[in-house]
Write a structure and sequence with these properties.
By secondary structure, the protein is α+β, with helices and mostly antiparallel strands. It is built from 16 helices and 23 strands. Helices cover about 30% and strands about 25% of the residues. Helix 15 packs antiparallel against helix 16. The chain starts with a helix and ends with a strand.
């Protein structure tokens, strides 16, 4: 009887322990809803969708807030968002699959598939591989060339041809620089090998088998679909403003997938179940392993904020340690939308967060808060931790812009306005035209379908550039003059687009 009683006690303890282990952490059970609602208010986010997967089960899958500030239609688990650079892992997975199938090697040179392809340096051109393109290690700066490519009228082939003009600031295969056009090049290998377009291959090999029925590889026409989030930003104004949907299918392999958290839960289960979905093998685990292998280090110093030491990049995926666990993630940034997809195989944990205000860090704070809860990190309110610095930076920017606008006070420029009009050219970008409109200088960017701006004189040689699409920003710029003639102009865009300015030379009449 004693042994039977002891056995029953042990069984009860074991069952209780398993039930306790199966329960989500207290933060997820008791605080998550209020935390998110407060975060939306603190960070001016109209809507957010989230899914958390643990041990193959959906713990949380829901929406918060609204899709459109003009209405009351709520975000739900099926609301579509642009996932932007979270598209990159789909491209990396597709190419890793083709390698496992022995249809290509990730170490194949790009010139094997595109003999005329060129980078700025001859040696890099001769050596660059698919793996290099998927790892952001060709030596260019982060976002270099994106003003020319992002939302532009260029075709995929034209973008690839222009990459020969990207002068690297770093060393080939040594220095990390986040490169969207590199992913385009890698993705365009797929048609060469399979005879299918990148978008068709992604649809057939990943989206359809994973039953991601609302997701598409192409974002064109997104605004016409049902249950779609509307993009907003608070950049440069401090208040929510609707912005246009990005039109960047020409960079498709880097950024063009649209999805929702319901569909992304399938993607996370596929990642966490070693390439299986609903018990069915979709791809060999070797494919996923290739995407997770680090090809370049992005940091190796202990973080002062997170329990993290080492960071690297695989094939469309960041990898790091986090409180003794290996985590994988990527963020995505589109005009008016930012997202995060993260998974921790050792904990069988997956997270996806989609939002429709691009000027906020709550989407990152929330991911870290969930990781902290599951990985037993002492509680720190990540949202409040990030918010103070964000508010300070935003106030500093808005105060600066207000001062700039006050300096536009009717001063006359050194030369007549007509002297500044004409066609200007940049070797990489192409041309822009400056005209007089409503007694102001107006700019038409010919490399983009609908990008315009106004330039107003301030003082000295300072002019205020304000884009009609606020995503591109408000900046101080200068014209270059000599002998009472305008020779060129320096054009700046939002760092979210590209960090370096462009020098345009005036074309002689």
């Amino acid at each position: 009887m004693k042994y039977t009683y002891l056995l029953r006690c042990l069984l009860l303890l074991l069952i209780s322990s398993q039930l306790l282990h199966a329960q989500p952490p207290s933060f997820i059970r008791d605080s998550l809803d209020n935390y998110i609602r407060k975060g939306l208010a603190d960070w001016d986010i109209p809507g957010l969708a989230i899914v958390i997967i643990k041990d193959g089960q959906v713990v949380v899958q829901k929406g918060y807030g609204v899709k459109d500030m003009k209405g009351t239609s709520p975000v739900d688990e099926n609301t579509l968002f642009m996932i932007a650079s979270n598209s990159k892992l789909f491209t990396g997975t597709a190419l890793a699959q083709l390698e496992v199938q022995r249809k290509l090697s990730l170490n194949d040179k790009i010139t094997r598939y595109f003999p005329e392809y060129r980078l700025y340096e001859n040696t890099s051109t001769e050596l660059v591989t698919i793996r290099d393109m998927l790892s952001h290690r060709i030596g260019t700066k982060t976002f270099q060339g994106d003003f020319t490519f992002w939302n532009s009228a260029l075709t995929r082939t034209e973008i690839m041809n222009k990459m020969r003009l990207l002068k690297p600031a770093g060393q080939f295969r040594q220095d990390y620089g986040y490169c969207n056009s590199c992913f385009l090049v890698a993705g365009e290998v797929i048609p060469k090998v399979t005879g299918q377009s990148w978008e068709k291959y992604i649809q057939d090999s990943l989206l359809t088998p994973l039953e991601m029925t609302r997701s598409t590889a192409i974002s064109a026409g997104m605004e016409t679909k049902e249950n779609v989030a509307v993009p907003y930003t608070t950049s440069y104004t401090g208040s929510l403003r609707r912005v246009p949907y990005d039109q960047w299918d020409n960079l498709g392999p880097a950024a063009s997938i649209i999805s929702n958290v319901n569909d992304l839960s399938h993607w996370l289960r596929f990642q966490l179940d070693s390439g299986r979905y609903n018990g069915r093998r979709i791809m060999p685990f070797a494919v996923l392993q290739r995407t997770r292998d680090v090809n370049i280090s992005t940091g190796s110093r202990k973080s002062s904020v997170y329990p993290m030491h080492f960071r690297g990049y695989g094939l469309g995926l960041f990898a790091a340690d986090y409180n003794g666990r290996q985590i994988y993630w990527h963020t995505g940034g589109a005009a008016g939308m930012v997202s995060n997809v993260c998974f921790v195989p050792e904990e069988n944990l997956g997270i996806a967060i989609l939002t429709n205000n691009d000027n906020q860090n709550f989407f990152e704070a929330l991911r870290y808060q969930i990781l902290d809860a599951y990985l037993q990190v002492s509680y720190v309110n990540r949202s409040q931790q990030f918010l103070q610095g964000f508010k300070f930076a935003q106030k500093t920017q808005l105060d600066e812009i207000n001062v700039w606008k006050q300096r536009v006070k009717g001063n006359k420029p050194p030369l007549p306005l007509s002297s500044y009009t004409g066609t200007y050219e940049n070797e990489l970008y192409g041309t822009l035209n400056i005209i007089i409109k409503d007694e102001r200088l107006a700019v038409r960017f010919n490399g983009h379908k609908n990008l315009t701006a106004y330039i107003d004189f301030m003082d000295n040689n300072n002019w205020l550039l304000q884009y009609d699409n606020i995503e591109y920003g408000i900046h101080i710029i200068q014209f270059q003059t000599a002998d009472q003639q305008v020779k060129g102009v320096e054009i700046k865009v939002n760092d979210f687009v590209e960090q370096d300015s462009y020098r345009f030379s005036k074309v002689a009449k």
